Amino acid sequence: MNYTTAPSEKSTVKITINFTKEEWEDALSKAYVRTRGKYAVPGFRKGKAPRPVLENFYGKGVFFDEAFNILYSTNYPGIIEKEKANFTAVGEPSLSVDEISEEKGVTLSAVVPVKPDVEIGAYKGLKIRSYEYNVTDEDVEKEAAKILQSKAETVDVKDRACKGGDIVNIDFSGSVDGVKFPGGTAEGYDLELGSGAFIPGFEEQVEGMSIGEEKDINVTFPENYQSEDLKGKQAVFAIKLNGIKEKKLPELNDEFVKANAGCETVEEYKNKCRERLERSAATRSLNETENSIVKAICDTSKAEIPDAMIESEIDKMVQDFSYRLMYQGLKLEDYLKYMNISMESFRGQFKESAKERVMSTLVIDKIVRTEGIKAEPEEVDAKIAEQAKSVGKTAEEYKKSIDPRQIEYIESDIVITKLFDFLKANNEMYTE
C-alpha cells in the first residue's frame, strides 16, 4: 500500500490510497470469510459455498463493499496518525473508489475535513472594550431578599385586581389569524406576573384584571422565537382570570437568618451575599472581557471552517440544551413537539453561534502556537499544590488521586490565563 495527500477545497485533504492486486485479493478473501454466512446457494448449506460459487451466483462484486471496508479500516487510521504533523482530521472522510483492476489492484480516495489554518489580521495594538461590573448596596439588598421568597406564604386575594408579583390562575387560548396553534391553550394555569415566563406583552396585559373577568389580549411573537411557524406573528389570546394569590413574605431579621441561612445576624448574612455577588461579578467581568478580546481578533481573521467542525459544535450545543431540559424534567423530543419545531430547524438555530465558537477556538489555538505560550512544569506543580492544599492533601497524594486528564485541564487553564494576560498587555483595553 502507498498513498499520496493533496489539499482539497474548503479545508479538506484528499488522500489517494493505492493497493496492489495482492492486497486487494487478500481483502476479498477476508471479506468472503466474514460475510459468507449471509449467502445461500442451492446445493450448499448456508455459509458453506466456496467463494467462486458465490461470486458466480451473486456477481463478481458481491464481496467488494466488505473488502473496501477492510482496506479502509485497516489502513486509514494509520495514515491519519502518520500525517498528524501535517494536518488534523476533524471528521469522517468522504470515500470513493477511483479504480478496480485485476492487474493493478484498487485505488481509494478519502476526502477528509481537516482543522483549517487561520489567517489572523491582527491581535496586537487593537482597541478593545473591557467589562467591569460592580456590586451596589441595592444589589446586596435584592440578593438578601431572595431567601424570603422560599419561605413566602401565598394567600387568596378577593378584593382587588391583580398586579405585578401576584400569582394568577388563568385559562387562555391563543390563535394566529383565527387559527389556534399547538401549545397555545391551557386551563387553570398558574402564572406569576412579572416573571417573564410568557412572551413580551402578555403578562403586562393580564395585570389589572379581576377575578372572573374575560378579555382578549394582542401580542407579537419575537423574531427569535423557537417555533419557526410563530416567529414575528401577531396573536390573540382569549384570557379568563380564575383567581389571584399574593405572596406574604416573612421579615428579614436575626431570628430568620439563624433558622434559614446559617448566620447569626442579618449583617453577617448580607456580607456573605455581597461576597457571593462580588465573585459572580468578577467572573462575569472576566468572561465578557475575554469574549470581547476574542471577538475583536476574530473580526480580523479568516478561516475556511469545514462543515464537520460546525456540526460537531452544534452536537455539543444541542446536548447541553438537552441536559438543561432534563433538570426541568423535560425531554428534548417532548420540547420539540411542544414548540412544533423539527430537529433540523432546531439545530439550525445554533449554526451561527457554532461557527463563532469554532472560529474562537481556532484563533486562540493559532495565537498560542504563534507566541509559543505553554504551561511550564513549575507552574503546573504550583497549581497542583494549591488544589491539594484546598482538600487537605500533599501535592504527591493529590497528584496520585486525580485523573490524568485533570493534569491536562490544569495545563490548559494555565495556557489560557497566560494567553489573555498577554493579549490584555498588548492591546488598548478601555471601559465604557
Structure characterization notes:
The protein has 432 residues and is an alpha+beta fold. The protein is 46% helix and 21% strand. The protein is built from 14 helices and 13 strands. Helix 4 crosses helix 7, helix 7 packs across helix 11 and helix 8 crosses helix 11. The mean pLDDT is 93.
Tag the structure with descriptive keywords.
14 helices; 46% helix; alpha+beta; 5-stranded antiparallel sheet; 4-stranded antiparallel sheet; 432 residues
Distance between the termini: 62 Å
Mean pLDDT: 93
Percent of residues in helices? 40-55%
Rg (CA only) = 32 Å
Low-confidence stretches: none
Q: Major β-sheet, in short?
A: 5 strands, antiparallel
Tell me the overall shape.
Answer: extended
Write down the secondary-structure element order.
Answer: EEHHHEEEEHEEEHEEHHEHHHHHHHE
Topology:
Blueprint (H helix, E strand, L loop, with lengths): L1 E7 L3 E8 L1 H15 L15 H8 L5 H19 L11 E8 L3 E9 L5 E2 L6 E3 L7 H14 L2 E4 L10 E10 L2 E14 L9 H5 L7 E7 L13 E15 L5 H7 L5 H33 L2 E2 L4 H21 L4 H8 L3 H6 L2 H21 L5 H14 L4 H7 L2 H22 L2 E3 L2
Parallel strand pairs: 6-13
Antiparallel strand pairs: 1-2, 2-4, 3-4, 5-12, 7-11, 8-9, 8-11, 10-11
Helix pairs in contact: 1-3, 4-7, 7-11, 8-11, 12-13, 12-14
Describe this structure in a few short sentences:
This protein is of the alpha+beta class and 432 residues long. The chain contains 14 helices and 13 strands.
